[in-house]
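2024-03-11 09:14:02 INFO receiving multi-entity request
2024-03-11 09:14:02 INFO entity count = two
2024-03-11 09:14:03 INFO echoing inputs for audit
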Amino acid sequence: MKIGICVKRVPDTETRPKVASDGKTFDLSEAKYVISPYDEFGIEEALKLKEANGGEVVLISLDSSGDVSVIRNGLAMGADRAIIVEGDGERDPYETAVVLSDVLKEENFDMVFFGKQGVGHDYQQVPSIVAEIMNLPMISVVVELKVEGDTVTAVREIEGGEEVVEAKLPVLISAQKGLNVPRYPSLRGIMAAKRKPVDKKSPNYSSEKLSWEVEKVELPPPRKAGKIVEGEVEDQVKEIVKFLSEEVKII
Amino acid sequence: MAVYVLIENRYNKIKNPSFESLSAAKKLAEKFSTDNIAILFGEAENSSELGKYGADKVIKVNTGSDLVSRDVIIDAVYEILSNDSDFKALFASATSFGKDIIPGISARFKKGIAQDITELFYDSDPIMIKRPVFAGKAFEVIKFTDFPYFITTRPNVFKKAEYNSSGEIKEIEKSVSPDSLKTTLKEMKSTGSGQIELTEANVIVSGGRGMKGPENFKIIEDLAALLNAAVGASRAAVDEGWIDHQHQVGQTGKTVSPTVYIACGISGAIQHLAGMSSSKYIIAINKDPDAPIFKVADLGIVADLFKVVPALTEELKKVLNK
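2024-03-11 09:21:47 INFO inference complete, emitting structure
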C-alpha cells in the first residue's frame, strides 16, 4: 500500500502571534516550528497501515522556509521519504491545493492523508479542494479508520454525533484528534531519518484569480482580570450566583 | 442572480446554526437587491422556519433517502449554482457539515472559501470579512477579490433575525445511483443524546487537570445540567483520557463563544485561552491564585473546586426551584 501524507510546517501551539509592521502579516520570528498537530495523526495512521499491510509512506509538503528539519521529524517517526515543493510563501488555499494535487497525481497513492486543518491559518479546506481536483473520494474529520481489501470504513466527527462512511481505494482522509496517539520518534528513527531521501520540486502555480486578499491582521482586544474572591466557600458560592443573575443574567 | 445558503438537516431537523447563516446571508442578499435562496436536502420538521429567518425561496432537493452522501450534495448544489450565471455567494454554517461540503463546491469554481467567519462587513466595497486564525489568538480581515463568495459562518456568533420572507418551496428530484457514489454515508449516530453541543451552547461548564480523574466529571455534568450548559474540557483532561475529545476547548479542540464560560480546575494554558477568550463572561474556579486563567476571568474564585462546584449546584437548585 502506497500512502501519501500532506504535511504543513507551522508555528507550534504555544506561539503568540504578533502583528508585523506591514499590518497584514504576523511576526512569528520567536515561534518554534513543528509539523501541524493534525497532520501527525495522519502520519501515525499511515505508519500503522504500512506496518499491517507493507508498502511505502511518503510525506509531501509545500513550504517556502528552506528548513527541512521539521519535515525530518516525520521521517524520524517512520515515513520512508519526503517531497518538498518549494513555494514562495503563503498562498490562497485553492492554489495550494493545485500544487499538492500535481505531486499526488504523479505519485499515484492508494491513500492520501491530510490533517483536518493546518494550525495557524486554520483554512480547513485544502483537503476538500484536492479531493475535487483529483476526483477522489474524501472522508473528513476522521476519528476511526478501518481498511479491508480495497474498502475503507471511517467514522467522522460531527457535532453531537458521528457518521459512518464507506469508500473504495484510492481515498483521501482528513485526520482529526482522537484517530490515534502519534508516536514519538525513537533515537534510531532520528538517526535513520538523516539518510532518508528528501526530493525538492518547484511548484506550478495556477493562473486562476485569487479568491481574496488580506486587508489586515489584528489581535483580539485584551481581556481584563475581574474580581477575585477568596475566603469561605459559602460566600464564594453566593458571589457566583449573584454574578450569574446580575451580570450574566442567565438565572 | 442570488445568494444561496446550504442548510444542514440532521435527523429531519434543521440545525440552529443554519438559521444564523441564513439570516447573515439575507442581509448580503438585500445589499445586492437579490433573493436569498435556501437549499435543503430532504424532509425537515422545521422547514417552515426557513422563510421566517430570511429565505425568499427554498429549493428542496429530494434524493429518496435521509442518508445523503457528500458527493450527492456537492453535485446537486453545483448544478443549482451552475444554472445561475451570476450567483453572488454560497453560505453555510461552519459545522463539520459546512466545512466539509462548501470547499468541495468552491473547488469546482476554482475558488477558496472563507471558513468560520465571525464578522461580515456589509458596507465595505468589496465585501470584507473577519475570521479567527491561530484558533482565535488573532484575526484576519480579508477582502474578496471576485464573485462568487464562499463563506461559512461560525455558530453562535451571527444572530438569527426575523425577516418573515416568503420561503416559497420549490421541490426538485435528484436521482442517485448508489454505484456511482464515491463515498456512501452508512449511518448517523447521535452520541450522548440530549447533550448540548459545545459550539452552539450559551453556557459552558468546563473541567481541567484539577478534576483529577474521569469519575469527578460528574460534578461538572450536574452543574451543566442545571444551567442547560454544554460540558467542556481542557486538553490536559482529554489527553489523560478522562473525557472524549469532542469536549475539548482550545487549539486542537473547539473554539467557543458562549455567554458564560465556567472554567473549573483549568489553569489557562495559551492553547486553552485561545479557544474560549471570546466568551462574553468567564468565571474561573481554581485553587492556585497565580493560575493564568484569573487574568482573563471576570469573576475568579480561588478555592477547591470539589467544595465550590457541588455547593454551587445545591445553591442553584434552591434559587431555580429545581
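2024-03-11 09:21:48 INFO post-check: DSSP finds six helices and 15 strands in chain A.
2024-03-11 09:21:48 INFO post-check: Chain A has a mean pLDDT of 96.
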